């Protein structure tokens, strides 16, 4: 170290300080790739190119259920420009795959179990040739009657070698003989929603000289995808590499593995790079959707509105394959009573296979469906008791130290009452009579056909909860490396940036810990240690925790020589705005000077405390942490047309700690808007198992015109002591809560039960008496 690396302070006149740059935790640091994405220069998988590129196309089943009599690929193989055609016979390794349960064939061989199931894949020298060749594959089917009603799946012939029942959870908590003075019942149905990613699936496979293959994909869990691909190709994992390209938005597991796997097979077969860019229709047919759910509820309460017992039956339609249905069912059963104290709970939950499109992980899976049902029950209870809907909820809310129906004690902050009071007390928006008529938007949009006299305003509430990280014994671990050289820090971590802001968070962590402004996050590939899937706030907690630990190890390496030289411990030194100072002011130097040209690096892991599977009675410490949200919805309903306009959603959320204010607000607003779509428009219709209108004209996503005023009225920063930084996941819980709040408001406006999502117009029509 040079003599100038550390100097004692003197009484000389201090130089004027430069304006501090925004950095570190708590600052609204912008996304590093924001400019490139705004200008359209950010590289996505669909933009990739390689020398000698071939194009792929996949032949998919037009039937929901059929027996395959024969597959004739000869006509396709003979077409000019076609380089390869692959079917189930060409899969050299494991023929099955799946996110949770590996029960899904790469290509259907004997039986087709859902509309859009892959049958064959083609590689050709032009995308049009590939599509025509795929269409030229002749498949003879014996069409079978599909099983599309999940209630019929219990008695139907097995649709899969593993049977129709994927999982059954019988939750038993408390006294089965307990009864309340007041009882309300309800039957609820939740429709099928699609993740509807901004960009449809795309990928590029490039063969390697060693006989392996590299896949360039928008994967959200690259190591799991690599292991699945290697098993399918009959290769060792070290001969398959996945490079993560830009992910164009992800509200679920982004990539359909049935889309990825044919790419590598074709590249290995042809020895050429192969690219596939799915159409929107193929995207709808290929990836998984939210579980349609049937829920039956009975709530018991005393005369004061305190809950005594909840009984429920929850049936999840998993579609043709299991995927992550077991996890979704565990969340649904565990949170079936909501963020309320329920001394006695008896829940039966099932997930079954049908011939409907496969269901899987979509933000808030399981928790969203039950939230809509238990909040409807709370509205019914309030009406029967003559209580304000907010008041009956306040009398039952969960708090830290209470016990969930699964027997797990809530040890994390649970400020549910504070959240509900915040949205209840927030001023209501002005009524239409208080605003000029030309500024009043009728339900149905600016040119709504309704009459002002038919419009009724309603106010409703929703309380939601979700779990963070994996559950039931999932080994959550992530590894990160932090390197510093020449005043620049680099983070290597296989945590995929899916829009949740991990790369920004990683930069903030290193800036805060090391005082270095310039921080780069390296691209993700499977040569790095695994970091797990990008869902349920995992990367904020687990990967962010790994980055923090690695950065602190580098900090110790940086400060130890200085501490030794001045005879003090590293705990007495602090780094602020790129400067290292001691507690007594004797030491003052910059990080760059202290580095003295050296390169420092460290690698660390983060693994949260373990969980356990639910036992035979649905009991167990299954979750690492919980997050809560309260939303008050204000809607206008045209009771003659049944059209609904969401006027305002007031949101209060339990966030643990705000790490990036702007980014956090954007995540909450996006989640709330997604909830509006679930409540009012998004319904993937599948008559007899066939996806009707698999496009964005037939599947109605909310647009900017549908987005209501979103008021974030309270962010409760009560840090979770077991979480790095004390922060909680923020994206999923508003998605879970918003549909329930909107349905509650429509009930208040119309007096109708509203027991189905999305809310159909006929459910909001009030007929004249």
Automatic annotation (TrEMBL):
Comp. bias (Low complexity): 1-15
InterPro entries tied to this protein: Ald_Oxase/Xan_DH_a/b, Ald_Oxase/Xan_DH_a/b_sf, Ald_Oxase/xanthine_DH-like, AldOxase/xan_DH_MoCoBD1, AldOxase/xan_DH_MoCoBD2, AldOxase/xan_DH_Mopterin-bd_sf
Region annotated Disordered, chain positions: 1-29
SUPFAM superfamilies: CO dehydrogenase molybdoprotein N-domain-like, Molybdenum cofactor-binding domain
Gene3D superfamilies noted in UniProt: Aldehyde oxidase/xanthine dehydrogenase, a/b hammerhead, Aldehyde oxidase/xanthine dehydrogenase, molybdopterin binding domain
Highest taxon in the source lineage: Bacteria
PANTHER family for the chain: XANTHINE DEHYDROGENASE, XANTHINE DEHYDROGENASE SUBUNIT D-RELATED
Name this polypeptide is given: Oxidoreductase
Organism (species): Streptomyces incarnatus
